[in-house]
Amino acid sequence: MNTPAPPADPTEYAIYCDESCHLEHDGIQAMALGAIWVEQSQVKRLHEEFRGILARHGVPETMEIKWTKLSPRMEKLYLELVDWFFDCPHLRFRGLVIPDKSKLRHGDFGQDHDQWYYKMFFYLLRAILTRENRFRVYLDYKDTVGSRKVEKLHEVLSNDRYDFDKSIVRSIHLARSHQVGLLQLVDLLIGALTYHTRGLTTSTAKQAVVQRIRVRSGLTLEKTTLPSEKKFNLFFWKSRDT
After folding, report:
1. Which residues contact 23 (CB under 8 A, 6 or more apart)?
2. pTM of the predicted model as reported, rounded to 2 decimal places
3. What angle do CA 142, 159, 189 make, to 5 degrees?
């Protein structure tokens, strides 16, 4: 009689999350949330590779890579970071894009913008989580009351997976992006998404990076991908009246 093989040990993943243009009254229509996830065993090596790319371009590791800092002088660096993401089999990205925040009707749903913002993070992360694996989530630090909201997000994610002992989502931490290279890479990707969604053409360097992402992903960056898309997964959120 054959003895069934024991179940494989779960793989632990780190998920790095950030957002772009998330403020309610910033005068910008489009908003994006993004997450890069990677096996925990690869994190240290990938952060070293990230710092190595910066070093090749003469950029100190203390400098934070941000979409808003992209200039013609930095174009080659940002393009190399995009290529590094697509060439690395361990890195995967999911983006959630809200094309027009002006269509939000928080009052109709008994919520404020802050509560809605964390609901969007829930929808971003829910598609990544699987019962057979384990996850540690890192959110870019934004404000002094963030820790209480993070606790609520952890509770909601765990309950959705019937993970009442929090063994699937093991932890959610606030992290400072200037200390974490993969958070900076998320900022770059979601910055490109919001820039393209807004139809901007203000910077040739930013246009070049958007185009590189379009070419490498094979996507228009304008519509939701199939749920099975693993490398560059996108979801475009729309209000009920659109």
Report:
1. none
2. 0.88
3. 40
